[in-house]
Specification:
There is one protein chain. The chain is an alpha/beta fold. The protein folds into two domains: about 120 residues, Rossmann fold; about 250 residues, TIM Barrel (Alpha-Beta Barrel), CATH 3.20.20.450. About 40% of the residues lie in helices and about 20% in strands. It is built from 14 helices and 15 strands. An eight-stranded mixed beta barrel has the order 6-7-9-10-11-12-13-14, surrounded by five helices. A five-stranded parallel beta sheet has the order 2-1-3-4-5, with helices on both faces. Strand 10, helix 10 and strand 11 form a beta-alpha-beta unit. Helix 2 packs parallel to helix 3 and helix 8 packs parallel to helix 9. The longest helix is centred in the middle third of the chain and has 20 residues. The chain is globular, with a radius of gyration of 22 Å.
């Protein structure tokens, strides 16, 4: 809920127009350039900031850079009369600086586009916001030993017809006092301490146990499990995966391993060997977050992928961004030529769904369908969905 809004724009007319998009219950502060905007942020952080790019004295790019240096973290919507390519580039820069950039809009602002971005403020599901590094190594080690990490599931839905076709398995920490803790709070520690493969094997084992429970009720759903780039080395990973899968009696064709396109730059030969072994054992292999790296085409030619997951940065509000449409459609065409199943990540609105469906994407995943759910809640979601939509086949 937004109660305090800061609009940073050198145009009085545009500031008035932006303020009119909000109801009377919102307190609106205004600044005419980046220097005035920084002063407002230092005084008190708002719930949301609208930031113009072209301003005198200090423009929007410079203001974002100063915000990052001073750790002034506030959700930002970038606005400009310039082209979408420039707006998108600045949004990317802001995210790389560690700022919570919701997205960018071209002036004049339109209510429906604005509402779409604002809705993303609630995409944490109401969970408590937590700072990375809040938990110590010993706390996370104790949680791993106590079995407090568990799989959550987010569905992958066939865009043509709505069939449930799979689920991505996502690690969550069920803290005894703090509730559900998101991966950003523990994955960096696990990777730094060399415990990430141990977590992956735990999540794989527990999710395959859950698969068997669902299978007894007629639901046989392909599960996608993330592999950290730090796990893609040595001779122990594939035998461990084979042992867990064999003990679970889940056919390997129901398991897909996801690796990011940038994961293997420092470990190419070993990573390709592991990928090839997984495919020889009938596991699926997905390239995750496609569109975020620089060696994309090379990785597609080097690895035996079966699936391509299009990063949400190419999906979010794509209907309003012609330059992203060109990239998205090129990715779909490439995947079709390579006979890869395509999955659009981060589908959050009906507009997102309509566009990716109409332009040839096969599967979709995102908050529009549901947030990640634990095993029990996911099973209940499937049952509820079956009343109006066919179950997985």
């Amino acid at each position: 809920m937004i109660s305090d809004l800061l609009i940073v724009d050198d145009s009085t007319l545009h500031r008035m127009h932006a303020a009119d998009l909000f109801g009377p219950g919102v307190s609106v502060r205004q600044a005419g350039n980046g220097q005035e905007g920084l002063a407002q942020l230092r005084a008190a952080l708002p719930d949301l900031m609208l930031l113009d790019l072209e301003m005198p004295q200090m423009d929007g790019v410079q203001m974002l850079q100063h915000m990052a240096r001073e750790n002034l973290r506030v959700p930002v919507v970038v606005t400009s009369g310039k082209d979408y390519m420039l707006i998108s580039s600045v949004c990317y820069m802001g995210r790389e600086l560690g700022l919570p950039i919701l997205g960018g809009l071209k002036k004049p602002l339109r209510r429906e586009e604005f509402d779409d971005l604002i809705s993303r403020l609630d995409n944490d599901g109401g969970q408590e916001a937590e700072r990375e590094g809040e938990f110590s190594d010993s706390e996370i080690r104790a949680a791993l030993d106590a079995g407090q990490f568990e799989p959550f599931y987010q569905p992958k839905v066939k865009l043509d017809g709505g069939l449930l076709k799979g689920a991505e398995v996502l690690a969550r920490w069920r803290h005894p006092e703090r509730g559900i803790i998101s991966p950003g709070q523990f994955i960096p520690v696990l990777e730094r301490c060399g415990w990430i493969t141990e977590l992956t094997m735990t999540i794989l084992r527990d999710s395959l146990t859950q698969w068997q429970q669902w299978a007894r009720h007629g639901l046989r759903l392909p599960l996608s499990v993330n592999l950290s780039p730090l796990s893609l080395k040595g001779d122990e990973l594939v035998p461990a995966i084979e042992a867990i899968t064999r003990d679970s009696k889940v056919p390997p064709r129901y398991v897909i391993f996801e690796i990011t396109e940038t994961a293997v730059a420092d470990n190419l030969a070993e990573a390709i060997g592991i990928a090839a072994q997984l495919r020889l054992n009938q596991f699926g292999l997905s390239i995750d977050d496609f569109g975020t790296g620089f060696a994309t085409i090379q990785q597609l030619t080097r690895f035996p992928f079966t699936e391509l997951k299009i990063d949400q940065s190419l999906v979010t509000s794509v209907i309003h961004k012609p330059h992203l449409q060109a990239v998205f459609e090129s990715v779909i065409h490439l995947a079709e030529r390579l006979q890869l199943t395509t999955v659009a990540e981060g589908v959050e609105t009906g507009d997102d769904l309509g566009y990716v469906s109409q332009h040839g994407c096969i599967l979709g995943q995102g908050y529009l369908f549901t947030r990640p759910l634990d095993g029990e809640a996911f099973g209940a979601w499937v049952k509820q969905r079956m009343h109006g939509t066919p179950a997985a086949q």
